[in-house]
């Protein structure tokens, strides 16, 4: 009989320990991406771009615009338990960042090839570093070269590139699902953070593809973020959670707040959608809470249908243990049963309050004979001539390019320097303003308003006639932007009545000096004394309601309707003249309406003259004027795209009288018929 073989206990090599630990934290590419996204958010990023190849196995790259990593910290970047977010164990009780153990990048570097390009705002250069096995190595992963970061060109922020994930763990590599399945998991993770993080814009696409699989902008509403990620079917049936009724009881068990959105009882969906749950801004799963909420839906949804649920819970940090699982996917918190009961009651009361208007789907009984054979299902093909390739919610890369301070199209007079200031808002509501708002509401052109709300700006077509193009759905439109802007600014004036910003003028010219150029070129004008006297007689009202401040016969300030829009100072003489001659100060409604119309006219950009090719060159004055006009054209185009059209999407009601100012000039099906492509 053989004696059993005995084995002595030996200490595992550190490389084996690190690889085992890494395998617990990074189970699949989606786990690695989750850690990288959280690092980017911790860095204060407002933009996170993700590039994926072969489901994240061959390549997983994330680029952000956060505060970057200092060159001195790159040596320890991938060392285990090296972190800037935690100093002692007690700090876990108040931890507010996603990361805290210093294991994520270390784990990734033990099972993949990791490279970093980073730049801080205070650094003149970016630095690139390579990591293997938790250690800084030479350039291009050369372990024999000098291990130090190398200076390179780059923008503020950090780009982390993970290549050949699980290259040294063949069994884990084989256990992964197909590349498409792994990519779907990555999109799911990105989508969940895109829904939750209001101040961060996300994009994700496959390597080699031009279009984004997912793209969101920062500061977009919750409903819009859910629409982009989950689709319109869910977004159209969303309802916001009600506020906690017994806040004292909730606070006593450590529940500080509950926010989120859920689908109403009208939403019918046979496919399960995993709830999106964040606790203290951590993406987590909580089985008991999920089961309790789904049980509440049992009384509202027909059998076999499933809801969409997004919840964000704020729980007293000292009551939450975030160090339960290596992936940080699970958390534990005190008073779990009480908190689950409060949240479930909140969901149930929200559903109950919206259930009175519930829509029950019905099916019409058709009169055709039962024996009539059913037609075989036909395969649906994508119709290229009806495909909308541009979405109004998508941002352009040029949006990230900063503009110079002097690029505003209205800064044309060097003798007048302007600045703006804020004042406390007032709640003054005159009956005349209410009447004007009601009058506007009765004249709204609903279909044109819907078109403008969902328009994608294209560009200026004719800056002299002040025409621009935009796209809606598969249609191309031409519009008179001067007419639209005059109405937009008038509507802003109605909304901001008695709450305008102040646009200070320097030097403070007298009314006579401002009007002088006008009277020098026109002989049939109303007497300057009449204009001056009319304005001085009404200066108190003009200042209180419109921030048109006249002191000692000098114009001190004019209204500021938006912080990114300034008026043309060339129009000031006409503005002052019209205030003194075109306003009926005896009738309150007419007076307020006419002043608002004059303010709107002041802000409408001037027509830019088109250069005459016959003029040629050779004149310094003509060359200077041409350069200035070119700058003005670019500025008008940029202001229209990044200020005016976003403003119109938010608050513009197109009146019926503007129907002739917006015309359709082409559509995609028509272009396909002519050109057979587009």
CATH superfamily of the largest domain: Histidine kinase-like ATPase, C-terminal domain
Query: Largest beta sheet, briefly?
Result: 9 strands, mixed
Structural class: alpha+beta
How many domain regions?
A: 4
Number of helices: 20
CATH architecture annotation of the largest domain = 2-Layer Sandwich
Helical percentage: 25-40%
User: Uncertain regions: pLDDT < 50 for 5+ in a row?
Assistant: 399-417
- What is Rg? 32 Å
Overall geometry comes to globular
CATH class bucket of the largest domain: Alpha Beta
What distance lies between the first and last C-alpha atoms, to the nearest angstrom? 84 Å
- The pLDDT mean sits at 83
At the fold tier of CATH, the topology name of the largest domain is Heat Shock Protein 90
Beta-strand content: 15-25%
List how many beta strands DSSP finds: 24
Description:
The protein has 678 residues and is of the alpha+beta class. The protein has four domains: 14-216, Heat Shock Protein 90; 222-353, 2-Layer Sandwich (Ribosomal Protein S5, domain 2); 430-500 and 621-677, no CATH class; 506-560 and 569-603, no CATH class. Helices cover 35% and strands 18% of the residues. The protein is built from 20 helices and 24 strands. The strands form five sheets. Strands 1, 2, 3, 4, 5, 6, 7, 8 and 9 form a nine-stranded mixed beta sheet that branches. Strands 10-11-14-12-13 form a five-stranded mixed beta sheet, with helices on both faces. β8 and β9 form a beta hairpin. The longest helix is centred in the last third of the chain and has 32 residues, at 620-651. Mean pLDDT is 83; it is low at 399-417. Residues 354-380, 613-632 are annotated as: Disordered. Residues 361-373 have a biased composition (Polar residues). Residues 226-352 form the DNA mismatch repair protein S5 domain.
């Amino acid at each position: 009989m053989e004696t059993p073989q005995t084995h002595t206990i030996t200490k595992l090599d550190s490389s084996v320990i690190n690889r085992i630990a890494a395998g617990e934290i990074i189970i699949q590419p989606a786990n690695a991406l989750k850690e990288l996204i959280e690092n980017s958010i911790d860095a204060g990023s407002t933009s996170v771009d993700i590039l994926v190849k072969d489901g994240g196995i061959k390549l997983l790259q994330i680029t952000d615009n956060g505060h970057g990593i200092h060159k001195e910290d790159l040596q320890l970047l991938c060392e285990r338990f090296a972190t800037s977010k935690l100093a002692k164990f007690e700090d876990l009780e108040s931890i507010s960042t996603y990361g805290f153990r210093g294991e994520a990048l270390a784990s990734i570097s033990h099972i993949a090839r990791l490279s970093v390009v980073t730049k801080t705002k205070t650094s003149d250069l970016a630095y690139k570093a390579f990591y293997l096995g938790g250690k800084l190595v030479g350039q291009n992963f050369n372990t024999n070269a000098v291990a130090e970061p190398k200076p390179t060109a780059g923008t503020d922020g950090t780009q982390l590139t993970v290549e050949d994930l699980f290259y040294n763990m063949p069994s884990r590599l084989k256990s992964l699902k197909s590349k498409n399945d792994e990519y779907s998991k990555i999109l799911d993770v990105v989508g969940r953070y895109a829904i939750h993080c209001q101040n961060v814009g996300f994009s994700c696409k496959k390597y080699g593809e031009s279009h984004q699989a997912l793209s969101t902008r920062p500061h977009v509403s919750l409903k819009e973020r859910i629409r982009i990620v989950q689709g319109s079917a869910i977004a159209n049936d969303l309802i916001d959670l009600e506020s906690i009724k017994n806040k004292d009881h909730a606070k006593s068990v450590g529940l500080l707040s509950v926010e989120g959105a859920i689908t109403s009882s009208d939403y019918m969906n046979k496919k399960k959608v995993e709830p999106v749950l964040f606790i203290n801004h951590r993406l987590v799963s909580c089985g008991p809470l999920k089961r309790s909420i789904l049980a509440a839906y049992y009384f509202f949804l027909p059998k076999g249908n499933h809801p969409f649920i997004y919840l964000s819970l704020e729980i007293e940090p000292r009551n939450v243990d975030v160090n339960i699982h290596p992936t940080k996917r699970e958390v534990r918190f005190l008073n779990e049963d009480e908190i689950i009961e409060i949240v479930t009651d909140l969901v149930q009361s929200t559903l109950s309050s919206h259930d009175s208007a519930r829509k029950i789907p019905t099916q019409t009984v058709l009169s055709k004979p039962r024996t009539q054979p059913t037609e075989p299902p036909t395969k649906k093909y994508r119709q290229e001539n009806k495909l909308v390739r541009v979405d109004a919610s998508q941002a352009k890369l040029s949006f990230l390019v900063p503009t110079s301070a002097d690029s505003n199209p209205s800064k044309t007079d060097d003798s007048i320097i302007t600045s703006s200031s804020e004042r406390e808002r007032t709640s003054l509501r005159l009956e005349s303003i209410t009447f004007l708002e009601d009058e506007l509401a009765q004249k709204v052109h609903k279909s044109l308003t819907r078109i403008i709300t969902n328009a994608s700006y294209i560009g200026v077509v004719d800056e002299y006639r002040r025409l621009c193009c935009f796209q809606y759905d598969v249609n191309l439109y031409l519009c008179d932007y001067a007419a639209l802007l005059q109405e937009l600014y008038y509507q802003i004036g109605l909304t901001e009545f008695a709450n305008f910003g102040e646009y200070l003028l320097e030097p403070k010219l007298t009314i006579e000096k401002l009007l002088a150029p006008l009277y020098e070129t026109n002989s049939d004008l109303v007497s300057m004394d009449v204009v001056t006297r009319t304005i001085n007689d009404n200066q108190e009202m003009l200042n209180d309601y419109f921030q048109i401040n006249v002191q000692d016969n000098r114009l001190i300030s004019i209204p500021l309707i938006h912080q990114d829009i300034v008026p043309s100072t060339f129009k000031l003489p006409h503005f002052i003249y019209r205030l003194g001659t075109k306003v009926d100060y005896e009738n309150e409604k007419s007076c307020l309406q006419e002043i608002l119309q004059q303010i709107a006219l002041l802000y409408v950009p001037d027509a830019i003259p088109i250069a005459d090719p016959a003029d040629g060159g050779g004149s310094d004055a003509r060359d200077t004027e041409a350069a200035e006009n070119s700058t003005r054209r670019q500025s008008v185009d940029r202001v229209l795209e990044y200020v005016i059209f976003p403003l119109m999407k938010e608050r513009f009601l197109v009146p019926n009288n503007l129907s002739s100012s917006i015309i359709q000039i082409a559509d995609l099906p028509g272009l396909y018929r002519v050109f057979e492509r587009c």
